[in-house]
Design brief:
heterodimer, A: mainly alpha, Ferritin, two-stranded antiparallel ribbon, 10 helices, 2 strands, 58% helix, globular, B: mainly alpha, two-stranded parallel sheet, 7 helices
């Protein structure tokens, strides 16, 4: 039984489902998948909500498929590196095993949520960075670019999931990508924050617009010491779907 | 206001006297905030002004309540990092001291922005209660820091789908990933490269679905309450 798909379908049909179905129970199902708890709580929860469940709207499917494509890329990239790279990960290997585990989970989660509507995995390629699996520093740069792009991509899609339960899931993935980005940056001995639009070896497009300081008001005016560096580091900026697709196009994602 | 008071030696005046942003400066900016009429559109048309509730600080309802919830988290973080910077643990490295200063300053921009956007609907400055924190212990400080950051992430993740104002939704997205970066940094300092408890450890990210946490407002308040002197109420925010 596919719990995630079920809840997602129910909620997209029955607007009141989130209210009827306790958030905590839902989280619990998703997190633990405990058979015992499910056996008791699930029928009770389902009894009070719609029996009918349809697929998501086309727009939501588009968002989830866009996310899925990025997750395919990340998952494939780390899997390949962990299996085939000629450099030695050394003490950093557990970090990338952990990141890969999350990306693989995201792929599965999104595929499951989309069901038959899930986009197939594209043929991916990395020849835009010929030494990415032979030079650890290049690998780290591309990893950072993927993670920071992922953060910006999910952020850009959030408004399209306005008020939907899928927004919560997307935000939960978004934060994990940000944790990954911070860690990869640390492995490069860089800052965990994105400073202005500094790309630090990654393609400039990954950080275009990160120099923004205006959040309704120019935040630099709100306090002493609120410099360009402080303010741009304190707020991550979104990217449009088009901008993200342009960044990942060289890797075979369309 | 009470965050500046000096009547509680362990928790008072955390932001003020010794840091570059003095008490007077802070109050001056608070003044600017309260006259700003440029709050988010929905804030202007709905009366969700927080009201005292059985002596508790009520966060309010709707987008105002969500902003006040986030604002309370930012207050806690700024007060905490200010204290760490003022009374660092023994033999702190210059790198780690710089991290805490950076964390304080970035959270401060979040705090000031929420204060500005909330205007007269902002809850008062809260008095932190850090009696459970051992500021002389690196482990206690790092653990408390990432606990706050992890909670800040879960709070914004959980509140997201209740946000009505699109601009507020966009803004919380810009902030929540920075909180996640902070959480990852502090976790990595405490448990370097650890899969179990590190930057995105199995103790916080689901191992089967790869998801960070999402908490509803009452759960956030419940977890933050031990660190705040005043009683906080999320009574008018979504419970399910």
């Amino acid at each position: 039984m596919n719990i995630f798909q079920l809840f997602s379908d129910i909620e997209s049909v029955d607007a009141d489902a989130p209210e009827k179905l306790s958030f905590y129970s839902r989280r619990f199902f998703l997190r633990k998948g405990s058979k015992a708890a499910t056996a008791v709580a699930l029928p009770m929860a389902l009894a009070s909500i719609s029996q009918e469940a349809f697929a998501q709207s086309t727009e939501v499917q588009e968002v989830l498929n866009f996310a899925l494509k990025l997750e395919y890329l990340e998952e494939d990239f780390y899997k390949k590196a962990l299996a085939e790279a000629t450099f030695d990960f050394g003490a950093d290997r557990p970090v990338f095993e952990q990141i890969h585990k999350h990306e693989a989970s995201h792929v599965k989660l999104l595929q499951t949520a989309l069901g038959a509507a899930a986009a197939p995995k594209p043929a991916l390629k990395y020849d835009a960075f010929p030494d990415v699996f032979t030079n650890y520093q290049t690998f780290l740069i591309v990893a950072q670019a993927f993670e920071d792009t992922g953060v910006r991509a999910y952020k850009g899609q959030a408004p399209k999931l306005y008020k939907l339960p899928e927004l919560t899931t997307a935000l939960q993935i978004h934060a994990v990508e940000a944790r990954h980005a911070a860690e990869v940056r640390r492995l490069r001995e860089g800052r965990v924050w994105v400073t202005k639009n500094e790309s630090d070896g990654a393609p400039a497009a990954v950080y275009a617009g990160e120099e923004n300081t205006v959040q309704k008001v120019d935040v630099r005016t709100l306090g002493p010491g609120f410099s360009d560096i402080v303010v741009t580091e304190a707020f991550d900026e979104p990217l449009t779907k088009e901008a993200v697709l342009e960044i990942v196009k060289p890797f075979g994602v369309a | 206001m009470s965050i500046f008071s000096s009547d509680t030696p362990t928790s008072g005046d955390l932001i003020g006297s010794k840091s570059s942003v003095g008490r007077r400066t802070f109050l001056r900016f608070a003044g600017i905030s309260s006259v700003s009429a440029m709050a988010l559109t929905t804030l202007a048309c709905e009366d969700h002004r927080p009201a005292p509730l059985n002596g508790a600080v009520d966060l309010g309802a709707g987008d105002v309540g969500i902003m006040n919830l986030a604002y309370s988290q930012e207050q806690l973080e700024v007060a905490f990092y200010s204290q760490v910077v003022q009374t660092p643990y023994a033999n702190i490295s210059s790198e780690e001291l710089a991290f805490f200063t950076d964390l304080r300053d970035r959270e401060r921009t979040h705090l000031e922005l929420f204060k500005y956007l909330l205007g007269d609907k902002a809850i008062p400055m809260l008095t932190p209660n850090f009696s459970s924190v051992d500021f002389s212990s690196r482990e206690s400080v790092l653990k408390t820091g990432h606990t706050f950051e992890d909670l800040g992430v879960a709070a914004l993740n959980g509140a997201g789908r209740f946000v009505t104002d699109m601009e507020l939704l966009a803004l919380s997205g810009k902030i929540v990933s920075v909180e996640a970066r902070h959480a990852a940094l502090l976790r990595d300092l405490l448990h370097p490269k650890s899969q179990a408890m590190g930057f995105a450890g199995d103790d916080i990210i689901t191992t089967d679905t790869g998801l960070d946490r999402a908490f509803l407002p009452p759960q956030v308040v419940m977890m933050a309450q031990p660190f705040i002197q005043q009683k906080i109420s999320a009574e008018r925010l979504p419970k399910a």
